[in-house]
Amino acid sequence: MLTFFPTPYEDELWYGIITRYHIRSGNSCWKYTIQELFPEMKGYPRLGDTMPNVTMQTIAAQLPEDIISLRDCALQHSLFPFRMRFQPVEKKREYLKEFLNGENMQPKFLFTTKKNAAEMPLRFCPQCIAEDREQHGEAYWHTEHQIASLPLCSKHLCRLIPLPKQNTMSIGQQLILPPENPPDSDFAATETEYALTEALHYMYTLPYETSPSTLSENLSTAIENAGFLETGSVLRQSWDVQRLYAALLEKFGSDIVSMCFGKHITKAHARRLRQYEIYSTEEYALLAVLLDLEPSVFFSGEMVPLELQEKMFELERQGRTYTKARAAQLLGIREDQLLPYAKRFGIRPFWVQSGKPCADDKRQTYSVEIRLSAQEKETLDEYMAAHNMDVYGHALRYFMQKTVEDWKNNHTNERSFKRDEN
Amino acid sequence: MRKYPLNESVCGAVYDNAPVDNPFLAALPEMLSRDEFLSAIRSSPGLPHNLAQMTPEERRQSLPMLASLFVPLDYMYAVYDQLYRAIRETYTTRTTMEAIRQINALFCGKESDSYSTQAASGSVLGVPGIGKTSTIRRALETMPQVIEHTEYMGQPFYCKQVLYLRIECPSDCSVKTLALNLVAALDRAIGSNYLHQLISLRSIAVSAVATQVKILCMTHHVGLLLVDEIQNAVETAQRNRQVKPLLKFLVELTNDTSTAVYFVGTPVAEQLFTSQEHLKRRTRGIRLLPLKPDGTYRRFLEQLWSYQLTPQQAPLTEKLANKLFDHSGGIPAYIVKIFQETQVQALLLGQARIDERVMQRAIDILAIKVPKTYSGGTYLSEFEIDDAGMPDVETSLAPSPEQAPEEASGETPETVPRLYANQRGRRAASRDAQDLVAVFAAGNDLLHFLRENHLLEE
């Protein structure tokens, strides 16, 4: 039975709690503390892991009941909730239950790249160190700071600093304390870094049970809005992974992108991303920033509007006649994509259907010629420019149809009124 | 209603009003009143129920029960009061935050920037056999040695607060031995295994052990460290001048960890304490002299007297009491020893009860030699505690004429001759009023007296 154990601080990394135990034990060597805490364990325990593991269970078993809650250890002192963020709720519950029942948690599928799975150096915020010393009398390792892709401290918005590795030993094999004299804080950050910090912090601080909403296809919609669909892939909606990866590289730099996605994004990976089958929270955070998405859209039922669909509906609703070329131009797509999109969105074609067979009474075989004064033509041109019309005939037909339709409607109403009076 | 049950060495923490950031102060046991304290430390073993039928051998076998007899005296409350306040001072000085800062500073080997003031320190010295150690042990046993914290203000908070540790000054005066003694005492108190760990590291440096001990004192929130038999340090000092590192370590311990340190020993230690100014300042405290042949002594004897296991009870006569005092010097341990041996001799001689002759025989056998002089201090009989109608007891220690100058000046006290119940030396010759010796003794001017009585030839 242990005779004392430090009370964990808010957001303290499990490894940090053990380092504080070591300091309080007065042991001259880290090895003795490990022997004291894990007498039965052979070799060095994996204390440097950011995921919950057997070390938590071993220590909790040596303390009186209710001193250390395994649930708290996993949810508040490891990156478990963050790494499990994109897992379905049932899976999350199952993993947590398994851990609480004594299983050693190391789900490999959470790490998509080898680099991501490797042990990263511990990172700190100089401002947090000073603040912790002021508030608690000592500095400690913050769990959130250990999210490898988090560029800034979410509280102070200064750059997080990795502690250089002194040797090749893993973190668990040695005592690493927050630096005694940390360097000055670096507040010079880019907009992208602020946005990424905000997105990662949001995903880190969500309640454990919050999972992505499978009802919405917001990521897919955002990808389409940003134009990252493959050309011609209107119905399958395949992502243009090369362009997407290039855009990510340009926005975040190669270090962070290769750490999160690897050296490229495969089509299969993209498909799984779209269906939230990739469980790397960082990948979604990077995509959210790239696509200028609020990170909350992954988790709420709120639908991100598909811009093309909205525009198409708007054009259809206006009831004006456009040439196919003009309609495609207005929507920012190719002419040959107009019809597939209209079919996908369930919109009746609102552009001129030349060559399309129709009933005899609908065939436009009569022509009318009108003459305009210069002023009238100028006004008509202005109107057409303002309403994205490029053919006089289409404009005049629109005026005619609208006027005749209004007249027809009024006439019908008057007649039915008189009939009612009689 | 007491906060913690008596004679429980480990208790779960019970908090009362105290600064929010100081659970250790909030968990301290309350100070006992004089009467509560004296009744708590009293130990009166029961006489065997079949005493009348017991054989002399059985009676002699039962005599060691006197070792567990403990008669409370007022001075004990003064000692308790001092120790309690020392413990309280430690926790008042050392808040949780201060402790964390100090531990980290010690770990990193740097100066602590803590603003906490120095913890209490002092000493209790007294003639051997006067009852210092048992008084202190019993005084400390009125409070739990370990308070176990598991939750404070709704938050998990697991640690064991060690109110006091009692260790003996190592005879070799080595810092390492003292540190190991301390760790062993800590292990006994909280059930840890630090000693085994330290001993397994054969080559660990003294400084490393010392640092670990300091950190452990902070981690386990040790309130008071009692170093008994401190005179060992003096004896070693005289032999090989090794005392300085040990005392330096103890002073460092007080400074670095804000842990109160009290030294207990015989007056021999005083010369070491007064040898250096910084030590002198840290080692002031009660100096105990034996009982005086007065009412306190008689009350002590009355309680002892009922423990006669001889077939008949001898009454407590003036003669017996005086004889016992003169040969024990008023030192309680000797009084009990002579009383016990007297009964043994009476039983061996087949006497029904003790008398002066048997007592003299016992005295001769024991060969007790009481010192003729003591260094200054306060007689056990001179401690007066006023407890009448006061809910919170204040200790009023009436300093004796011998003690007052010492306390005031801090110099080495003058020696005090031992006291006797029976006046010693020749009886004073009776002199008439004209006797020159009598005139001189009365302080009159001899020349004037001679002239006045026409006894001077001029």
CATH hierarchy, class of the domain at 10-30 and 71-285 in chain B: Alpha Beta
Q: How many domains in all of chain A?
A: 4
Number of E-state strands of chain A: 2
- Biggest interface, chains and residue tallies: A-B, 23 and 35 residues
**CATH fold-type name of the domain at 10-30 and 71-285 in chain B:** Rossmann fold
Q: Mind telling me which CATH architecture of the domain at 10-30 and 71-285 in chain B this is?
A: 3-Layer(aba) Sandwich
Radius of gyration of chain B, taken over Cα atoms and rounded to an integer in Å = 27 Å
Give me the CATH superfamily of the domain at 10-30 and 71-285 in chain B.
P-loop containing nucleotide triphosphate hydrolases
- What is the number of helical segments of chain B per DSSP (H or I, 4+ residues)? 20
* Bulk shape of chain A: elongated
Question: What percentage of residues of chain B falls in helices of 4 or more residues?
Answer: 40-55%
Beta-sheet strand percentage of chain B? 5-15%
Structural class of chain A: mainly alpha
Mean pLDDT across residues of chain B: 84
Assembly state of the chains shown: heterodimer
Total number of helices of chain A: 19
CA radius of gyration of chain A is: 31 Å
The largest pleated sheet of chain B is described as: 6 strands, parallel
